[in-house]
Amino acid sequence: MAQTTCMRALKGALNGTVKGVCVAGLALALAALITPARAQAQTTGSIFGFPPLSQPQAAQANGGHPLMTPQALADAQANFPACIANLWPLAQSKGVSRRTFERYTANLEPQMKIMEFMDSQPEFSKPIGAYVNMLVTETRVKKGREILERYKPIFDRMEKAYGVDRYAVTAIWGIESTYGDPDGIGRRNVLDSTATLACIGRRQDYFRDEFIATLQILEKDDVPYDHLKGSWAGAFGPTQFMPTSFQRFAVDFDGDGKRNVVDSIPDIIASTANNLKLDGWEFGKAWGYEVVLPQGFDYRNANRSIKRTLGEWNSMGLRRPSGVAFPRAGETAYLLLPAGANGPAFLMMKNFDAILKYNPADAYALAIGHLADRLRGGGTFAQSWPKEERGLSKAERQEIQSRLAQMGYDIGNVDGILGQKSRVAIQDYQVRSGALPDGYPDLQLLQQMRR
């Protein structure tokens, strides 16, 4: 996506015109701040849709990685034809014919502009409340309800076949690409993108599989070559499948013999549902509940490793804002405070974790769950998000980790990813310093550490 496109998308946030390739990328930028280290996003690729960095910014973001230096990039560019040719044995082992391989690789050229996009997320900081409000807009709600009505027979069949909530599928469709807007899907050739990243840059091992998976799609003619357009990282279609995820989750739901998640509405809906199902979605159950915490609550209970039944949380004084009882008191959940003690609180269920497997960012998963509820007829969150000026940059997150490590805490690698170890360490530090132990890393916490 061009820088101007993404910037226009940001400016359009207030009226709901933000495009999926940009906004889902913004959500992943929060993953390092609000999601513990976990498996990488297996499906969505619009998470990579940031504007390109300047050359100095790119050099800093890539941390001097040996495969990202100017000389390494120039060498890899020169070696590109040989690199592609050397991938033939792997492609053959995956069922790609020689004819298909030669047809689609003969004229490949590296798209070096893509290198400017890599690792651009970490320094793009924004508080989670602003992200969720930017993603869940009245425009998306209105159009999503139109989608649900227009394709009701397909959603009926999908729910019966896969046992996945139609509102969750529609929410992913809306967040990922604004329901199929070309600017949301992306306009780059998927084979060009995956080939470039398979042979150039620091993530060649990962994208080698994506490149081969793209060739498999073309071998089976599931999606026409000229329709295989997407983000710079290779995600395609209205719900943004990466090629390897397409291989695992895509289904032929319209019965034409093709798994076309670009042009076939039935295939798009059912494939997205199949993904959620295989990731553990439980039909008829909530993704989570907004809750109000009682006075004097021990915030150390806000820990992903602490799971209790809803009945147990209720006995501790946690209530839904409406006062309505939890429908299934025996279900287990963990307490999440995505913006700390001053923001909304949530009890998160298995379906929230299923969304996180689609894209491992709390901001993204929370936006999907909230949009799904709004499409169903629910209202906005009862509690307000704190009015933060900005989130922490990667350097600031790393500084927090470094200071915690100097205090003797085991936080793992100083990588700017504030996972479970870092959150527990922050909570302990907050207890020792007399602050509420909500584990939330913000500027106030960093400034206190600096004193």
From TrEMBL:
UniProt-recorded Gene Ontology molecular function terms: peptidoglycan lytic transglycosylase activity
GO biological process: peptidoglycan catabolic process
Alphabetical keyword list: Signal
Protein's name according to its UniProt entry: Lytic murein transglycosylase
Cleaved signal peptide residues: 1-41
Coiled coil spans: none
Domain of life: Bacteria
Every Transglycosylase SLT domain range: 80-373
Span of domain Peptidoglycan binding-like: 395-449
